[in-house]
Specification:
Layout: E1 9-15, H1 21-32, E2 40-45, H2 49-58, E3 65-69, H3 76-86, E4 91-95, E5 99-101, H4 105-112, E6 118-129, E7 157-159, E8 167-171, H5 172-178, H6 197-208, E9 213-226, H7 233-254, H8 256-259, H9 261-283, H10 289-317
Parallel strand pairs: 1-2, 1-4, 2-3, 6-9
Antiparallel strand pairs: 4-8, 5-9, 6-8, 7-9
Helix pairs in contact: 5-6, 6-7, 7-10, 9-10
Length: about 350
């Protein structure tokens, strides 16, 4: 189903808990309904045998869905690497297990790869709040806290330093050049909500392939569920602190220059404008204005605190994550990544 010069797309969805059973089924259904069909859907289960067996049974008769066990250590990065290794498409796309993609999601991704320089394409992620609406105090500038596109990213199809992992795609060759996602960073089940693994990979990719073009196309839209617990200020503080810890590891790996390049622009331009907007709304009597301004200041301080702690730990203990080559079947009509139901 490829256009001229555009490879097929394999979609990887990583799952870890049966609590998201309905969400996982919805995510798979949204990929199966794409206007540009995926070559395959790879469901990677992170060290949960009960979920693995249940998904295997659910999709046993559906040829384009393959259910795999995470072949590496626990965590999202190793799960993604397992999917990459098994993928038979020339493009590998990633969708969160609690998100649904709009019908033209893959079409917009694929079109960008007509340019052979393009190595990665991300999209726009919209929040689906459990309460039905955004909390009045929650600033759009911090939507990355709940895994969504945040205010301050440029609109349209534009070049970026890094894509966001829950709504992203890479040319298969990118992993041959740079290796896979670093393990020891990023999400690990229910532990502290770390991140940054896609940033580290994208910077590594740009160093390995200086000619590489990385894009975000805001027409490639997914809708990401935000559970009620993540609508509370306690989670906001925890997540921003964890992001600081993660950024310290990224900076340790690729250097603070590249590792914090986008963050400097974000903290010196986007966030001050958000504080001013929140204070203005408060003066005008609009709901949540003061709360949003306060949340931005709190988010900056907790992220900075996490970065300081993470930097000290990394300096004391050394870097605790590793990057390994991702091996697997070569993409193309004749390639075979095995089956999930052997």
């Amino acid at each position: 189903m490829s256009g001229p010069g555009i490879p097929d797309v394999s979609v990887v969805i990583c799952a870890y808990t049966e609590d998201r059973w309905t969400d996982v089924l919805a995510a798979v259904a949204s990929v199966r309904a794409q206007s540009r069909p995926a070559r395959e859907i790879l469901l990677v289960v992170d060290h949960n045998q009960a979920l693995l067996d249940r998904l295997d049974k659910e999709y046993k008769e559906i040829e384009e869905v393959r259910v795999l066990a995470n072949a590496g250590p626990r965590g999202l990065s190793a799960g993604r690497n397992t999917g990459i290794a098994a993928a038979r498409g020339g493009i590998v796309a990633f969708l969160d297990d609690d998100a649904v993609a709009e019908r033209d999601w893959l079409r917009h991704f694929a079109e960008a790869y007509a340019d052979p320089r393009v190595m990665a394409v991300g999209g726009r992620t919209e929040p689906l709040w459990a309460s039905g609406r955004r909390p009045a105090w929650f600033p759009e500038e911090f939507d990355w806290v709940v895994g969504c596109t945040y205010r301050g990213l440029p609109p349209g199809r534009v070049r970026v330093r890094n894509v966001l992992g829950g709504n992203a795609s890479f040319r298969r060759d990118a992993f041959d050049a740079a290796g896979g996602f670093a393990t020891g960073i990023g999400r690990d089940g229910d532990r502290l909500p770390l991140g940054g693994e896609e940033t580290e990979l994208c910077i590594r990719l740009s160093r390995a392939r200086p000619d590489a073009v990385l894009l975000i196309d805001d027409r490639a839209v997914i809708h990401h569920r935000v559970p009620g617990v993540r609508e509370h200020f306690r989670y906001f503080r925890t997540r921003t602190y964890a992001e600081g810890l993660s950024k310290a590891l990224v900076a340790r790996s690729v250097g603070a220059g590249k590792g914090l390049e986008s963050e400097r622009r974000y903290t010196t331009r986007v966030l001050p404008a958000g504080v001013v907007r929140g204070l203005r709304d408060a003066l005008l009597g609009r709901p949540g204005g003061a709360g949003r301004a306060g949340a931005i200041v709190t988010g900056v301080l907790t992220a900075a605190g996490g970065y300081l702690v993470g930097s000290l730990r990394a300096r004391r203990d050394g870097v605790t994550f590793s990057v390994v080559p991702v091996t697997g079947p070569p993409p193309g009509p004749g390639a075979d990544g095995g089956t999930a139901h052997d």
